[in-house]
Write a structure and sequence with these properties.
Length: about 575
C-alpha cells in the first residue's frame, strides 16, 4: 500500500531542493497532486496539478487528473472544461470522455452525458460500466425501457456486476415494477453483501409497498454496513414515522442531519414530526432549513404552510401552499415523485379549505384527503373554561388500496376535531389514511397518554366490519377476502379506550352501520396485531357510547355498502 504522506514529503523535498528539472519536475508536482487527491485534500491537489500543467500544457493526463479533483469539489463546469481539453489533446483517452459524461450527468445534463457514453461505446463496446452509466442517464430522463436495455447489456457482459443489478432495480422501481426491483436489489446484495445502497433501495420499495417492518430491516442493514450512510438513516426515520414511532424517527433523523447537514429530506421529515406533535417552533425551523438547502422542495413548502396554518398565520400559509403548487422539480425516484404529488394534493386541499378564511382566523386542522400515506396533525388548543384534562384521537381513513376509497372520512375527521377543540379538548390528534402498523401504534400511544387524562375520546371514520359479534376497524392496506380471513388478512384494528384513572372514555364514529360497543385494550390484540371492538357487557367499567363507522352488514341498502 502506498504511503501517501511519505510520497508527499519526498516530492516536497525534491521540489524545494530544485533538483528535478523538465519532465521530472512535472512528475514531482503530478505525483504529489495525486497523493493529495487520494488523501482527500483536493485544494492542494489542484494547486499541484495547476503547476504541472503550467510546466507541461500539452499533457492530457494532467487535465484529466485535475478534472477528478474538480469533480469531488462539485465544480462540474471546471471538470468538464478540463476533461474536454484532455480529450482534445488525446482523442483516444476514453476515460476522459467517460468521466465527462459522469460530470454532465451530475449537472443534470443527461443528453450530453448520453452523447459522451455513446462515444465511449462506439470506441469500445465491451465496457459493462459504460452501459450501466448510460442506462442511469436514460432512467433519469424517464426513459426506463432504454435504461433497462442498457443495464441488461451491462449484466450480460458482466453477470457479477452488482451495481448493474442495483441500477436496474432502480429503473424497475421508477417504472413501477416493484417486484422486479426487489428481485434485482436482492441479487445485488447476494453478489456483494456490503452494497449498502442496494439494501437502501430495497427498503424504499418495501416502504412504497407498505411493508414497513421489512423496510426498517433493510435500512438497518444499510447503516450496519455503512455507518455514515445518511440517506439510510433518513429513510429509516421516515419508516418509523409511518409506524408513528416518533421517538425513534427523531433519533434517526438527527443522525442523518449530523452526517449530512445538507440533507434537506431529513430536516423536512423531522419538521413533519414536530408539526404532528405540536412543536411548531421546531417544525418551522426544520422546514425553513429544508427550503434553504433545496428551494425547489415542494413538501417543505407544504409543511411550512401547514405550520403557518396551525399558528393562525393564514396569509403566509396560503403563500406557501400556492408556491408548492407552482413548483415542478425533477423527481429523483418514484418515492420522491409520489411524495411531491401528495404534498401538492395537501396544498391544494388546504387552499380550498382556507378560501373563505380571514387572514387572522384560527385555522382548522389540516388533513390530507384521500392521500396514499398516513398524514397526521396534532392540534394544541387552549382550554375553554374547563378544569379537567381532555385529549382526543380522531382517525379518518379515506384512501383504501384494495376496496373503494371513501370521500368523507378525512373531511369528517377535520370537522369533528374542530368541534372537540372548541369544546375544551387540550390536544386533538388527527390521523388519516392509516395502514395497519400505524393504526395499532397510534391507538397504543394514545392509550398511554390517556392514563393521565380526565377525558379521552377516540373518533373513527372509515371502513369497518363485524365478524362473529366483534367489530373491526379496517386499515387502508387491508386485504379482506372472506369472513374467515378477516383477522389474518385484514389486520382489522379497533380503537383503544384506556384503563386506570381516566374518568371518561369514549370511542365514537359513524353510528349508522354498527351497534354500540365498548373498546378493548390495545394490549388485548389478536395474534395478527389487530385490536378489535368488543362486547360492552363483558367489559365492566367501560363507557358504552362507542360506535365504529364501517361496512354495513348484509341486509342494509346497497347504496350504503361502501359508506363510512
Amino acid at each position: 500500500m502506498v504511503d501517501l504522506d511519505r510520497t508527499i514529503s519526498g516530492c516536497s523535498r525534491a521540489l524545494e531542493n530544485g533538483n528535478p528539472k523538465g519532465q521530472l519536475r512535472v512528475a514531482a508536482y503530478a505525483n504529489r497532486g495525486y497523493a493529495y487527491h487520494l488523501k482527500g485534500d483536493d485544494d492542494h491537489a489542484i494547486a499541484d496539478f495547476n503547476e504541472a500543467i503550467r510546466l507541461d500544457p500539452k499533457n492530457a493526463g494532467l487535465y484529466e487528473a485535475r478534472g477528478l479533483a474538480d469533480h469531488r469539489k462539485g465544480d462540474y463546469d471546471r471538470e468538464i472544461a478540463d476533461l474536454s481539453e484532455a480529450a482534445r489533446l488525446n482523442p483516444k483517452l476514453e476515460a476522459a470522455i467517460y468521466n465527462r459524461g459522469a460530470a454532465n450527468a451530475a449537472k443534470g445534463d443527461y443528453d450530453r452525458a448520453i452523447a459522451d457514453y455513446n462515444e465511449v461505446v462506439r470506441v469500445d463496446p465491451r465496457e459493462s460500466h459504460v452501459y450501466n452509466a448510460r442506462g442511469n442517464s436514460y432512467d433519469a430522463k424517464g426513459d426506463h425501457d432504454r435504461a433497462i436495455a442498457d443495464q441488461n447489456e451491462a449484466i450480460r457482459l458482466n453477470p457479477q456486476y452488482a451495481f448493474a443489478y442495483y441500477h436496474r432495480g432502480l429503473s424497475y422501481e421508477n417504472s413501477g415494477d416493484h417486484d422486479r426491483a426487489i428481485a434485482d436489489y436482492t441479487e445485488a446484495v447476494r453478489i456483494d453483501p456490503k452494497l449498502a445502497v442496494a439494501y437502501n433501495g430495497r427498503g424504499l420499495v418495501y416502504l412504497i409497498k407498505g411493508d414497513v417492518d421489512r423496510a426498517i430491516a433493510d435500512f438497518s442493514e444499510a447503516v450496519r454496513v455503512d455507518a455514515k450512510f445518511a440517506i439510510a438513516f433518513n429513510n429509516r426515520g421516515s419508516a418509523y414515522f409511518d409506524k408513528a414511532d416518533y421517538d425513534r424517527a427523531v433519533v434517526d433523523l438527527n443522525e442523518a442531519i449530523r452526517l449530512d447537514a445538507k440533507l434537506a429530506l431529513a430536516s423536512k421529515h423531522r419538521g413533519d414530526i414536530y408539526l404532528i406533535t405540536g412543536d411548531y417552533r421546531r417544525a418551522m425551523a426544520d422546514f425553513n432549513e429544508a427550503i434553504r438547502i433545496d428551494p425547489q422542495f415542494v413538501a417543505a413548502y407544504t409543511g411550512r404552510g401547514l405550520t403557518y396554518e396551525r399558528t393562525a398565520e393564514i396569509a403566509k400559509a396560503r403563500a406557501d401552499f400556492n408556491f408548492a403548487l407552482g413548483l415542478s422539480p425533477k423527481d429523483g425516484n418514484a418515492k420522491l415523485a409520489r411524495d411531491r404529488r401528495l404534498a401538492q394534493d395537501i396544498a391544494r386541499e388546504r387552499l380550498a379549505a382556507l378560501a373563505d378564511a380571514p387572514a387572522a382566523a384560527a385555522p382548522a386542522p389540516a388533513v390530507a384527503a384521500a392521500a396514499p400515506a398516513a398524514t397526521a396533525v396534532a392540534v394544541a388548543t387552549a382550554p375553554v373554561a374547563v378544569s379537567d384534562h381532555r385529549i382526543a384521537l380522531v382517525i379518518g381513513n379515506s384512501a383504501y388500496e384494495n376496496v373503494p376509497a371513501l370521500p368523507n372520512p378525512a373531511r369528517d375527521a377535520t370537522l369533528v376535531a374542530d368541534v372537540l377543540k372548541r369544546t375544551g379538548f387540550e390536544t386533538v390528534t388527527v390521523l388519516t389514511n392509516l395502514r395497519k402498523d400505524a393504526l395499532i401504534s397510534a391507538l397504543r400511544g394514545f392509550a398511554t397518554r390517556a392514563e393521565s387524562a380526565d377525558w379521552a375520546v377516540v373518533y373513527y371514520a372509515g371502513h369497518g366490519m363485524e365478524v362473529g359479534g366483534i367489530n373491526y376497524l379496517v386499515p387502508t392496506d387491508a386485504k379482506v377476502a372472506a369472513d374467515r380471513d378477516n383477522r389474518l388478512r385484514g389486520g382489522a384494528n379497533g380503537a383503544g379506550a384506556q384503563r386506570g384513572r381516566t374518568r371518561q372514555k369514549i370511542a365514537t364514529g359513524d353510528p349508522r352501520c354498527l351497534p354500540r360497543q365498548s373498546v378493548r385494550e390495545p394490549d388485548e390484540a389478536h395474534a395478527d396485531g389487530g385490536v378489535a371492538l368488543g362486547d360492552a357487557r363483558a367489559r365492566r367499567g367501560r363507557a358504552r357510547s362507542g360506535h365504529a363507522g364501517g361496512l354495513c352488514r348484509q341486509g342494509r341498502r346497497d347504496r350504503d355498502r361502501w359508506r363510512r
